[in-house]
Amino acid sequence: MPLGAPRGAASKSPPISCARSVQELSVGGKIWEENVWFFGFFFLCVLRLTRTVSAQLLWGRFGEGEKHRIRNSLTEPNNVVYNLTVLLGRKPKRARSQKLCCVSCSEYRGLVKHTGGCHCGAVRFEVWASADLHVFNCNCSICTKKQNRHFIVPASRFKLLKGADNLTTYTFNTHRAQHTFCKTCGVQSFYTPRSNPDGYGIAPHCLDEGTVQTIITEDINGKEWEKAVKEHKTIRDMSKP
C-alpha cells in the first residue's frame, strides 16, 4: 500500500497486459537459456559445413602435406570444443588441455625429432626417439634377407607425413608383423613388428642425417623368435609410451 493512502484502500495491481508481457519475457529467456548450447552447436555445424565445402572446392590444389594438416584440423575434437565455447562467450576449460600438454611434454622429454623416409621420397615420416638409438639386428628369415635392422618406438611417437597411399604390406606365417614398404622404390623405412604390434620398428638407415648421435646394435635370435622375445627383459616395453 502506498504511503499516505487511506487505511483500507486497495493497492493497484499492474495491468494484465503488462503482467503477461513480463511473464512471456521470462519464459522466452528461460527457453533461450536452456537451449543456448543447442543453438550455438547448430550455428557451429553450419559454419564448419560451409568451410568444408569451400575446402573441397580447392582440395585438388593442395599438396599431400597440406591435405594431411587439413585432415588433422578437421578431426581434432579440441578444436570443436574451443570454437563452441568461444561462440557462446564462455572461457574454455584449460585444465584438461594443460594436463595433456604436461603428459606430452613428459613423454617427449629427453627425445629428439627424427625425420626420414624411403629412397624415392614418396613416403616421409617423423618420429620422436632418443639421439642414442638401440637397434635390433634380427636373424629371422625375412630380416636376414632384407637386413631389417630397426629400433622400436610407441605408435604415439610416430607420424606419417605423406605416402599412405603409396605403401603396400607383406605378411607371412602369423601375419602379425606388417612389413610395409614403398610401392615405387621398394624401401621399407618402417614397419609394425610382431614383438610390438602397438608400436613401430624404424630403420635407422632411413633417417635423415643430423639427429642421430650413437647407435648400439643388439643381436636377437629370430630363428627362435618365441623363446628370444620371452627371455628378453625390455623389448615388449619399448612400444609403451
Describe the 3D structure.
Helices cover 38% and strands 21% of the residues. By secondary structure, it is of the alpha+beta class. It folds into two domains: 16-92; 111-239, Beta Complex (Metal Binding Protein, Guanine Nucleotide Exchange Factor, Chain A). The strands form three sheets. It has a five-stranded mixed β-sheet with strand order 8-9-4-3-10. Helix 1 runs antiparallel to helix 3. The radius of gyration is 31 Å and the shape is elongated. The chain starts with 15 loop residues before the first helix and ends in a 10-residue tail after the last helix.
Number of domains: 2
Number of helices, counting only DSSP H or I runs of 4 residues or more: 6
N-to-C span: 74 Å
Low-confidence parts, pLDDT < 50 over ≥5 residues?
Answer: 72-78, 80-93, 95-103
Strand content: 15-25%
Give the overall shape, derived from the CA principal axes.
Answer: elongated
Please summarize what this structure is.
The chain is of the alpha+beta class. The protein contains six helices and ten strands; from the N terminus they run H-H-H-H-E-E-E-H-E-E-E-E-E-E-E-H. It has helices at residues 16-58, 64-74, 77-87, 95-108, 141-146, 225-231, and strands at residues 112-117, 124-129, 132-138, 149-154, 158-162, 167-170, 179-182, 190-191, 199-202, 214-220.
